Every structure is written in C-alpha cells, then in structure tokens.
C-alpha cells in the first residue's frame, strides 16, 4: 500500500484543504483507490474561543514537564469558562499558583492522572495519589493500542493493587487501584497497562505554519508531543504562526493531521521552578554543617561510578551533584526523562527557559547533545539503553527491593520516572542515601515496609558509612567502609545481615578531600 500525501498547498493565496490519497496495489487484481478529505486545523485569535466548548466531565491531556512547555493561555482560559469535573492527564500538576495548580485550586479538576506531585502542595493535600508515568500509556493510546505489557511496576502496589488513588478526609483510602494482569515473557514478569486517550489535548508549541504543522523548542517537546496524538481534538497554542514552507518538511515535529485548533498566545510567563547553576570557582565556600559533610562524602564516592562512554540518568539531589565530579578524562552522557541527552549543570542562568531537566532545574547542553520527546526518552529507559541510573531511597531491602516514592497517608511525591528507570534489566541501579534515617532508624532492611518502587532492582548502595553490592539471590555484601569504621560498626546501624568481602576498601581513599 502506498500513501500519497499532497499536504497543504497555496491556492489563490490561501491554504488548500489537505488531501490524503491511499493507493492500495494488489498484484492479483489491479488497484483500488480511495480518497478521504480532512479539514485543516482552524486558527483562533482568542484562546478562550478555542476551549469554550470543552464540556463538564471531559478528559484533557495537558502537555508540559513541570512548568516547562505548559499551555499557559489555554489553562487560564479554562479558568474563565468555569468548566468542572475535569479529568486531567499530565506529568504533574504545576505549582499552587501556576499551570494546572490553578484549576486544582478552583476545584475544576475532579481527577488527576499523574506520576509526580512535585511542588504542588494543593495537589498533595487533595489527592495524595500516584499512578504510573503515563508516557507509554499515552503513546499507546495515540497509536490505537488498547493495552500493552511492561516490566515497570511489577512486584509493587501498581501490580498487586491497593495503591491509593484517593484518600478520605480521615486519611483512610477512599479509592484503591485494581490488581494488574501479569504475564511472563522470556523469563521476566510483565504487567498489563491500559492505554490513555482524551477528549481534548492542550499543547504548547513554539511555532505552527499555516498548514497546521508544529515544531517545539528544546525540552518543551516533553509530554506535548505524545499528547497531540492521543486526543479526539488537539488544541495547540504557539508563540508564532508562520507561512507554509518556513519549516523544512523533515524538521516538523507534529504533522497537521494531529492538530485541530491553533491559537497564538499573547503572553508567556515561562516560570522556572528551580534556577540552578554551578558554584563559581572564585566563590568563597560557606561553613559546612555536619549534614553537608555527610552529603559531600556520598557525592564524591558516587562520582566514581561513572565510566567513560556511559549513558546515565541521575536523580534529584546527591546523584545530580555527583555529575560535578566526573573525571575530566572521561565522557559521560547524561540523560533526562523530559528529553535531553548530553546535559550539564550551567555556570550561569540559562536564557533558554525551555531548557530544564526532569528535576525542573535549569541546565545547558554539551556539543553533540540531542532533544526529543518524553515518550522517546522513556523508550530509551525501558529499552535498556541507559547504562546507569543513580537515585535516592527511603528504604532498600537485603535483596535489592527499593522504596522511594511514598509514605502512605503522609507524603506522596509520586514515583516520577523511577519505576521505569529501575525496571530495565540492562541498567545498573545505584542508590545513594544516608545510612540511617532520623533517630537512627534503619533504612537498609531485611524487607522494606514502605510501598515499593521496584523489586530486586538495586545493584549497589552507597552511604556515608559504607558501600554494599546487592545480589538478588545472595543478598548484601559489604565492600567498602569509611575510615575508622569496621564491619561490626556497620552491622550495628544496618537493619539486616550481610556478607563481608574478603578485602574491604576504605571509602575515604576513593574520595577527594577538596571542598565542594
């Protein structure tokens, strides 16, 4: 079958209608021709007109990652329409006074499907819920795939059922998730996830041409790209509308077939959640607290996990700070879930507000870097193309179970991309954390008592006191200790038994003594 697309041409100075010609060639019986006409996307001057027909109870897919690439004007217009009982699907819910947080505050959103609460206190207060990162579910929905199997979430509440979707006012669970179907492929367990589709998609892009084709800028592609494909009606707000031919055909990110309405936004705040830069070399270091010394010790040891040519994904905090100490004679390619490969912490505030990483911090990129959408980013992760993922934890079990996303009824930040990152069989998972919680409570346990992020997924644990290797069958092996400590000291502050390596290295010999 040959698909011939004639695109949008100019006729009498106006864009012509799109014509899609499907030519089916059969060797046995000649040819069958069929044509179908599709109306080109409509252009609006007022974003309120573009969203005023969204009814109560609609499901909306909202692009963006944190506050980067969110459809500000369309969200503000929904405030004006007063539409209610919305189901909103998005990576997260903005912050209290910006983005989707505005619709949460006015109670216009009844249900939120999201993987990360982030910095939105109102979202956490109202819902205290989490769900698998919807990227792959949205991509499947846009491709007409009703369900699929994934290793992500196996052995957790996502698979077993009981994950809180909504809490009652007294803190009890009002709605819990249902168990997922499990299937085994090639010796590994996978769970079935249903795809996600929406009635409307609200998308922020950089530019659209008069034929309805769309391009994004830098990391603002994130969730916007897959959202475009999974809704019955896609509404795109852009910063600029240009003539047909301004974009080369091969540079278009979203072709016009997915775009139904386009509106040019008047103003964009483009708020940044976390302005982050490297400390200047000339800056006088601040006096260090005990907690700073502990963090520094973990950071410097964690940096030794990097190897030349490695592709790595780093979590917020200690893991990302470890990237400041990558050896100068090696190259490590850092990847972020929102769609960057080849990032680095900037020395100055980036002028490109579309350039942030998954932790919402500002970043810059190195020569040879690439931008892509979040669904492509998670394909890299789930497909085992990332060599190393480094992240924090609340608890780790003897056999490598990881808990780092919620304390039931108290704190739910959401699993973000962590469940995907630790589910790939080809990725080394390194946990960096303080050895004990406040009050000396154990964090390394025989069995985790918090909801799991992943089962038997951790390969190494790095704390300020020790380094353990983890075997999913044999358990923990102590391989390094801090200067002055002994294996017996480590046993006293560890909540499970472990083997001791024949040769124990001193952790301090592997770390620099320079100031951060």
TrEMBL record:
Source organism per UniProt: Cyprinus carpio carpio
UniProt keywords, alphabetically: Mitochondrion, Transferase, Transit peptide
SUPFAM superfamilies assigned: NagB/RpiA/CoA transferase-like
InterPro entries registered for this protein in UniProt: 3-oxoacid_CoA-transf_A (IPR012792), 3-oxoacid_CoA-transf_B (IPR012791), 3-oxoacid_CoA-transferase (IPR014388), CoA_trans_fam_I (IPR004165), CoA_transf_AS (IPR004164), CoA_transf_BS (IPR004163), NagB/RpiA_transferase-like (IPR037171)
Pathway assignment: Ketone metabolism; succinyl-CoA degradation; acetoacetyl-CoA from succinyl-CoA: step 1/1
Main location: mitochondrion
PANTHER family, per database record: KETOACID-COENZYME A TRANSFERASE (PTHR13707), SUCCINYL-COA:3-KETOACID-COENZYME A TRANSFERASE (PTHR13707:SF23)
Top class in the EC scheme: transferase
PROSITE patterns from the UniProt entry: COA_TRANSF_1, COA_TRANSF_2
EC number: 2.8.3.5
GO molecular function: succinyl-CoA:3-oxo-acid CoA-transferase activity
Biological role: Key enzyme for ketone body catabolism. Transfers the CoA moiety from succinate to acetoacetate. Formation of the enzyme-CoA intermediate proceeds via an unstable anhydride species formed between the carboxylate groups of the enzyme and substrate.
Homology family: Belongs to the 3-oxoacid CoA-transferase family.
Pfam families (alphabetical): CoA_trans (PF01144)
Active-site residues, record numbering mapped to chain: 337 (5-glutamyl coenzyme a thioester intermediate)
GO BP annotations, alphabetical order: ketone body catabolic process
GO CC term, one of those recorded: mitochondrion
Name of the protein in its database record: Succinyl-CoA:3-ketoacid-coenzyme A transferase
Compartment(s) where it occurs, according to its Swiss-Prot or TrEMBL record: Mitochondrion
Reaction equations catalysed: a 3-oxo acid + succinyl-CoA = a 3-oxoacyl-CoA + succinate; acetoacetate + succinyl-CoA = acetoacetyl-CoA + succinate
